[in-house]
């Protein structure tokens, strides 16, 4: 009778999901499942914040109009980004000089508006102090190169105007490289935090674009 009770008790434990100590295959499966669970937890821990759904550039909760400032920067900045390449088309400059001037004026106004909004965004950003410094440098260089390009053409120094516009558009194009570099960084260094990758991307987008611009300027002098 006691043997029947032990058998019934064992059967009840088996039906409730407790593995039999003699069932080695069940134990191996449970062990493998636990290992996979631990591995999954390690992988999730190593995933950067960007892949967990967090914003790459968080809005400042203490600034109610931060989103508006970003929009004011993005719209004219995007317009300048789209119009810039047209100014480097030699055929357009030669055949349609009036159009070249009109596009240039629109580009100038767009960069000024985008720069002012970018300065406000840099002041309230929560992306960290190193990135904030880079943003302020970018805004200052953006406005300075634009002013030099404008004054050069006003003095009819066309060649100098082209050089400064090359530098200015390289800084405008930082809006593109700043989006590309973090994606590459997350793929190449998935264990590094997003804030560190983003900070490096900000500085890299500025310095890298400036170096590329200077390369094109030097090459054009040799032609």
Automatic annotation (TrEMBL):
Pfam families: DUF2306. The keyword Transmembrane helix applies. The chain crosses the membrane at residues 67-86, 106-127, 133-153, 165-184, 196-218. Residues 1-28 are annotated as: Disordered. It comes from the Bacteria. Residues 11-28 have a biased composition (Basic and acidic residues). Keywords: Membrane, Transmembrane, Transmembrane helix. This is DUF2306 domain-containing protein. It comes from Herbidospora galbida.
């Amino acid at each position: 009778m006691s043997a029947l009770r032990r058998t019934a008790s064992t059967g009840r434990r088996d039906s409730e999901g407790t593995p039999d100590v003699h069932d080695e295959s069940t134990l191996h499966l449970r062990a493998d499942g636990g290992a996979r669970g631990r591995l999954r937890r390690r992988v999730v821990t190593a995933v950067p914040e960007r892949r967990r759904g967090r914003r790459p550039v968080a809005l400042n909760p203490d600034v109610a109009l931060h989103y508006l400032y970003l929009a004011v920067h993005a719209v004219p900045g995007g317009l300048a980004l789209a119009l810039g390449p047209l100014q480097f088309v030699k055929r357009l400059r030669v055949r349609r000089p009036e159009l070249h001037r009109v596009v240039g004026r629109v580009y100038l106004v767009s960069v000024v508006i985008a720069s002012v909004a970018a300065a406000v965004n840099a002041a309230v950003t929560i992306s960290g102090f190193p990135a904030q410094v880079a943003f302020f440098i970018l805004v200052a260089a953006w406005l300075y190169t634009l002013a030099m390009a404008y004054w050069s053409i006003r003095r009819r120094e066309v060649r100098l105007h082209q050089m400064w516009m090359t530098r200015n558009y390289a800084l405008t194009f930082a809006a593109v490289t700043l989006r590309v570099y973090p994606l590459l960084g997350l793929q190449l260094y998935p264990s590094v935090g997003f804030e560190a990758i983003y900070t490096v991307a900000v500085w890299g987008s500025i310095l890298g674009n400036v170096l590329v611009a200077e390369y094109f300027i030097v090459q054009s002098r040799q032609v």
